[in-house]
Amino acid sequence: MATFWQDYRRFLLSPEWQKIRAKVFAKYGKRCNCCRAVGQIQVHHLSYSNWRNPNLNDVVPACYHCHAALKAEQTKTGLKGHALWAWHKQNCTRNRRR
Fold first, then answer.
1. Quick check: 11 and 52 in contact, CB under 8 A?
2. Which tens digit of pLDDT belongs to each residue from 17-74?
3. Checking CA distances to 94, which of 39, 48, 63, 68 falls within 20 to 30 Å?
């Protein structure tokens, strides 16, 4: 029996996910929604409750650095989802450089 993370990783390789990524980039552009960096842009889920068919307000483009920082900040702050994203945008040191 597959775990959530195994299913999730498989989904990230699927054509369905590629369509969702394209919609996210069409909505926000292909740059980090926090620090505005370009290159190495990933799509970050703010909520996993509907991860196979997310609302476009629950996924945002994030550069590799901001995406990694979000994971560390979640552990540090206990915040999740939209609250964590808002906290990160407010406190992102990369954001101040752009």
1. yes
2. 999 999 999 999 999 998 999 988 999 988 888 888 888 889 999 999 998 888 888 8
3. 48
- Count, residues in the chain: 98
Q: 1: which 2 tokens?
A: 């029996």
Please give the structure tokens belonging to residue 5.
Answer: 């993370």
Q: Which residues pair with 45 in a beta bridge?
A: 59
With vertex at residue 45, the alpha carbon angle to CA 44 and CA 51, rounded to the nearest 5 degrees, is 135
**What is the CA angle 92-46-98, rounded to 5?**
25
Closest listed residue to residue 55, CA positions, set 98, 89, 32, 24? 24
Are 77 and 84 in contact by the 8 Å Cβ rule? The answer is yes
pTM reported for the whole predicted model: 0.80
**Token duo for residue 90:** 């407010």
